[in-house]
């Protein structure tokens, strides 16, 4: 059994779901030791078959364990050092269960259940090493509740969380204080270029500004700008284009509020290759994205076609035995696309029914609906790629998708992180949170969190009252 290498070092006992959620979790416990129960190895073996994300992770976790154990000269009971395999990021040891354990569990817990076997093992380790902290790590809430009821320390696995609190997530928008110009306006330079006004300002806030962050100040003369350049305590701001005005309508759609206006500014900017839009239902994410896509594909000819994909929850499973082509199988998931195209098609009043029908056929021919399951190995050239419901993607799936983008492709991720349907993802570990955090401040990235619902007074009231 595991012997205490140091009282300071904790001993973490890993539940199977931690390894299946993140196979690299073995290397994420720094100087602490980890213990893998036999029941965990059994469950990894049961879950290794198939093409789902869980099965892939189970196989990868087994490979990591095999690599560590097979290359070690030491006996497993002494613990195998992890430092060489983790490039010294983990300096603890790995212990595997080598003997059968009769943990003293209450009679109400059947010992045939894997969860209870692991709990029995943790209790046994606690008795063996009373001076050391033995902690169960599990993604299963009920398992953690049971553990605490038995007096066992239990924790969730947080390492893949981008943020502890999603309130800290970058919003892409910042309100300027009333005294902003007093502090930053001294020696300000201003010039105009291609219909935009630029300001070079100096002051304490410039340090914390990010490129492509939107700034606003609401007063008699509202000020809306985007940060174009940051050097130390100097920044260059550019005024934004007003998409709320009918003359700047995008495929007949105008911005109804400040954030929608900012969103259209990044969606219509060809220099911005990656856009993330977060927001509750009804804030206009899909409508704005599609309108900008149609305008740039059909009128401005910047992109050859629009590709729309979304996570079919259950994620990564087969899209089923529905009849038809890939596109037809995806139709049930694409209600949002149909609804928004109906709105966009009504914007052209002068065309009449025939004109509208022709436009509809043209739009249909330029929008392709693809399944996520067949994205590996593809490269998209000059495409406008929309990833809808992106909050249900893991960071790894997100990477797979975004790296499909070839030259001239723009990727737009839409989602609402408070509506996650995948069992093991939380707001903090969703792929959408991950990319928003990692891409902020890159000069070709734009991000906006849309605040106000614009569906109807009924939808707005329901969002608040329910």
What is the C-alpha radius of gyration, as a whole number of Å? 27 Å
Major sheet attributes? 6 strands, mixed
In CATH terms, the superfamily of the largest domain is: P-loop containing nucleotide triphosphate hydrolases
- Structurally, how many domains make up the residues? 3
Number of DSSP strands? 18
The number of helical runs is: 14
The CATH architecture category of the largest domain equals 3-Layer(aba) Sandwich
List low-pLDDT spans: 1-5
Strand coverage percent: 15-25%
Q: What average pLDDT do the residues reach?
A: 81
Given helix and strand content, the structural type is alpha/beta
Any overview of this molecule?
Keywords: ATP-binding, Nucleotide-binding. The chain has helices spanning 16-21, 38-46, 53-70, 114-128, 141-149, 180-184, 258-267, 285-299, 326-330, 335-345, 352-366, 395-402, 431-439, 457-465; strands spanning 11-14, 33-36, 80-81, 93-96, 134-137, 153-155, 173-175, 189-193, 196-202, 214-217, 223-231, 234-239, 274-279, 305-310, 367-371, 383-388, 410-415, 445-450. By secondary structure, it is of the alpha/beta class. The protein folds into 3 domains: 11-155, 3-Layer(aba) Sandwich (Rossmann fold); 166-239, Elongation Factor Tu (Ef-tu), domain 3, CATH 2.40.30; 252-465, Rossmann fold (3-Layer(aba) Sandwich). Helix 12 (395-402) crosses helix 13. The radius of gyration is 27 Å and the shape is globular.
